[in-house]
Amino acid sequence: MVAIYCRISGKKAEGKDVSIEDQEAQGIHFAARLGQPYKVYKDIGISGAKNEIEDRPEFAEMFSDMKKKSITSIFVIDQSRIERNSRIWQMFSYAILKYQCIFYIGGNLIDLDDEETRLSTGIISLTNEFFAKITSRKVKTANRLNAAKGKGHGITANGYKKDKDGYLVIDDIMVDTIRNIFKWSLEGIGTYTIAKKLNEAGVPTKSFQFAKKYIIRTDKYTGRKIKYPRSKVPWRGNVIYDMITNPIYKGDRHYGDVVAKIEGIISEELWDQVNKNLAKNKKNVGPKTKFHYLLNGFIFCAECGSDYRGKIKASGRNTTYYCKGKSQGKTCESKRGLNIPKFESFILNHLFESEELYKKLSNLKKDSDKEELLKEETHQLYKKKEEIDESQKHLYKLMLDPRIKDDVRDDYLRVKMDFEEITELIKKSEETLSMQSQVKRKARIDKIFGEFNYTLNFDEIKKSVHGIIESIQVQHLPEQKNFVVQINYRGFNKKSVFATDHNQMKWVNMSHHEVIPLTSEDKSEQDDLFDFLAKGKNWSKVELIDSLKHFNVWRDELESSTYPELLNEVKKLGHEGESVVNIETSNIVLNKEHIYNFNSNTS
């Protein structure tokens, strides 16, 4: 596979540097010439003069892939994309030789094992470093001169924009909002309350003006990429505080030791008054408390599909995983949350305090049908990626035509985001396909179960849990005062369904069952199951089936029986001295003395 590395240190004037899009297009064209698949790595707004590989995320990822030998060659348009730092060049050259990777600059093979090539590229590296330092000095000097003239660079402050000549001028769209913020602060309203007022009034932040309409964030533990609309970016108290204390709003634009006079949005007297009064509005709350959430990013609502997110108040009175659907404007009936310590204790108990789940997962055979389905899905995703790539290239060419309107640029950015999303879907699909290997699955769960213990730190415990669980779906049944929870296991075509009441101390397993002779213990579990199902107002079989449709409780293992038929058969067999009981794990009863609370010592 060809690695295409693209880097640009910032927004350059036309003709001064090769755009990221051009670098990528040249790399893709080169990979097509070789007839090889490719992976694009893009560091945007990052200097090549940085001293550490880790300071350049995509460059660091490419280094990691080189070590794994998942890439066999690297393409850049010129050496300065790799570095403007001789130390980084030495490390890169060493890695190329050690991991036997082929290096191309602008399509030309660079043999770093050749002494003359090493000498010439070393000289180029020193030149790049020298050029970077000279350029940095020039840029800083130019920025100081521009700042003294009242010109801006980079992202402007809220309430300001740049005119066609680069001078900072007041942005009429946000000027009333800025003035209201200062007015409210002078009235004694705190910064977080001001943020809340703006959010409740639907006042957009500056973020909505950016060309890219979405922010992509990657969950630290799940790796899941989540797309947030910029229009939904809320005001925050710390942003309000930074705005109030910024002297630009009284007309003083600071750049280092340079202070330039520009048009102020408020008077100097008002700015001084508000900042003098600000300390009175600020509550002395001490350092912010950091809370631990074991399952954030993995719990989803069966009603509306939104995340369940942990929320703990400093008082400790409210500790719940709650559905975000209502706050996102969706109609969702999940009004009640799951108690965090109890729910996390149930999950840990289910995973690690019995060997039955481990044995069950260890003995599951590879699902050939699912493997074939995944292969076909991956193939279709690649086809879709090619179509999107063609659209992206076509729109990019149109953008170069000055006669084309701005909406083409918006279309290009939208298609580009679609390309990134489908690339991520392919990556996830290939990872899931890889997990279908019987040997890999067994090795993975052997490692997790074998190394787990409760003396691990929180991050290690969370990593273990997320290594087994793919996702958790939750349905709240308010009339029955119950929750139904489906656990999906990572890399296995396997699910478990549990149910509990609002107290969350007893969890009844409702997954796969089989008929076996009834023992007193089995009879107790059966009674628990049917007592649970019968609990609540006007519980009917139809309502039970409807409420569990999200969870596919009936499967091939239940043969052709429908759920009502199975339920009747269970009742009949119970009277005859046999029972349908769980063959996967027994019901789980939590002990009050053994509720795991990862936030009990948080301060």
From TrEMBL:
This is Recombinase family protein. SMART domains: Resolvase (SM00857). GO terms for molecular function: DNA binding; DNA strand exchange activity. The lineage of its organism: Bacteria, Pseudomonadati, Bacteroidota, Flavobacteriia, Flavobacteriales. Residues 157-284 form the Recombinase domain. It comes from Gillisia hiemivivida. CDD domains: Ser_Recombinase. It comes from the Bacteria. InterPro entries: DNA_bind_recomb_sf, DNA_bind_recombinase_dom, Resolv_N, Resolvase-like_N_sf, SSR_resolvase, Zn_ribbon_recom_dom.
